[in-house]
Amino acid sequence: MRLSTPATIAVALTTALALASCSPAEPDATGGPEVPPGAAVDPDATINIGSMYEPQNLDNTSGGGQGVTEALSGNVYEGLFRLADSGEVEPLLAASHEMSDDGLTYTFTLQDGVAFQSGKALTADDVVFSIEKVIADDSQSARKSQLEVVDTVTALDDATVQVTLSEPSISFIYNLTYVWIVNSEFDGDRKAAADGTGPYSLGQWTRGSALSLERHPDYWGEQAANAGVVFHYFGDATALGNALLTGAVDIATSQQSPDALTQFEATDDFVINDGDSTTKLLLAFNDAAAPFDDVRVRQAVSYAIDDEKLLESVWGDYGTLIGSMVPPTDPWYEDLTDLDPYDPERAQELLDEAGFADGFTFSLDTPNYDPHPTAATFIQSQLAEVGITVEINSITADEWYTKVYQNRDFDATMQEHVNDRDLVWYGDPGFYWGYDNPDVQEWVQQSELVASEAEQTELLKLVARTTAEEAASEWLYLYPQIVVASTSVSGYPLNGLNSQFFAYDIEKSV
């Protein structure tokens, strides 16, 4: 799985900082060809979507992972605001909102006539329940730590919610895009069933195979452009590619095998879309445990890996080198790749200084799906040249989540971090990689309290540079966002921000 705990264009938060009413959202730019003149669109078509990321469960506060966000966010569940595929923060269930002069009180007015798929009307009590669910002690929400600034959530009446913060948070509205509004009276198992306000209701989930969504006829907004979608899940990129070629699926949400692109380039039956990505492939060290608690060891490993050669070997002409956790589309981006050159001689010097002149051995826990096995083998070969022995431990997404993310039982690991603006996790020493720098923690904390985006940007540039200089992790490369689709479909998202894949605008011609 890609870690969707806290891919693509930086979000402007101007509207979140002003006393304002929200206007209706403009349509996103979407992918696929225009419907050919004279071609008919089937409004009752079922769209088959291929993915490598099956949900762990259907609750985004219980470790559902990238798969649940991809399938359900915006499709079955909605928030007060949404992060559109264009990168803008747009109002959704919030008809309007106001912010107090001190930035501590937000008042939200809900849209009229909204109901859950079960038929229950949306009320302020559901919003209160949903926000409190995200910040609860047992929550595994991607933005739990950022939303713990919430002090109280109160239903003023059925259509009005007031949220008070313990301190100002410049990213508060942006962080609310992660909060699904759920039915507070739902008595089913949220990990296996769903009841949202979105344009689709949950159909059938056959674990290990597929998950279907059905157009909700009583949706409060514009009806979905198709009768439903089926997310088909594949264990490897080859199987997904074959499903596209045979017509078993219409779209692949992201192509993980660049070698497979040739077969789609050779025919006019498919469109290869190269969108923007914020997905970083990390070699994440356990910074809290030896030997990676020594900054010199982390730096040595980083110097010993030729990131450019790795990227080329995996993605060819696609993808981007990245010198920190910050992609070019985040406001605080700086090109820091010069801090992580390929320099095996310097790596050996640092190992000598750290007391590892004869090298050392560590275990690399890596997900068992593409491109991780290829990247792990490459890293193993590169580090062997400076005397470091890498023992590759290939594990499933479920095993990774329990062993690495929950139990912190690892030396180093590889993982994809999908979301934008996730540099802030280096300010949390309790996060799975255990990076602990008091200056970084202070800068991250202060970056939320400032009055302007310019001040926030300068503080987070300090965080990015410091974590890069200390090799808090080894950022291997930035993924391309490649969506491959049949020419018969259009209206699909190009960028898939934060693992979302809005399906409601997809049309299929006949």
**CATH homologous superfamily designation of the largest domain:** Dipeptide-binding Protein, Domain 1
Number of helices in the DSSP assignment:
14
Structural class: alpha+beta
Question: Going across the major beta sheet, what is the strand order?
Answer: 8-9-10-1-11-18-12
List the helices and strands and how they pair.
Elements: H1 14-17, E1 46-51, H2 65-72, E2 81-83, E3 89-91, E4 94-99, E5 105-110, H3 124-134, H4 144-147, E6 150-157, E7 160-165, H5 172-176, E8 200-206, E9 210-215, E10 228-233, H6 237-246, E11 251-252, H7 261-265, E12 270-275, E13 280-285, H8 295-304, H9 307-315, H10 344-353, E14 361-367, H11 372-384, E15 389-395, H12 397-406, E16 412-417, H13 438-449, H14 453-469, E17 474-478, E18 481-486, E19 489-490, E20 507-508
Parallel strand pairs: 1-10, 1-11, 14-15, 14-16
Antiparallel strand pairs: 2-3, 4-5, 5-7, 6-7, 8-9, 9-10, 11-18, 12-18, 13-16, 13-17, 19-20
Helix pairs in contact: 8-10, 13-14
Description:
This protein has helices spanning 14-17, 65-72, 124-134, 144-147, 172-176, 237-246, 261-265, 295-304, 307-315, 344-353, 372-384, 397-406, 438-449, 453-469, and strands spanning 46-51, 81-83, 89-91, 94-99, 105-110, 150-157, 160-165, 200-206, 210-215, 228-233, 251-252, 270-275, 280-285, 361-367, 389-395, 412-417, 474-478, 481-486, 489-490, 507-508. The model is unreliable at 1-28 (pLDDT under 50). The two termini are 34 Å apart. The protein has two domains: 14-194 and 483-508, Alpha-Beta Complex (Dipeptide-binding Protein, domain 1); 280-478, Roll (Dipeptide-binding Protein, domain 3), CATH 3.10.105. The protein has 510 residues and is of the alpha+beta class. The radius of gyration is 23 Å and the shape is globular. Strand 8 and strand 9 form a beta hairpin. The longest helix has 17 residues, at 453-469. Strands 8-9-10-1-11-18-12 form a seven-stranded mixed sheet, sandwiched between helices. A five-stranded mixed sheet has the order 15-14-16-13-17. Strands 4-5-7-6 form a four-stranded antiparallel sheet, covered by helices on one side. It contains 14 helices and 20 strands. 25% of the residues lie in helices and 21% in strands. Helix 8 runs antiparallel to helix 10 (344-353) and helix 13 runs antiparallel to helix 14 (453-469).
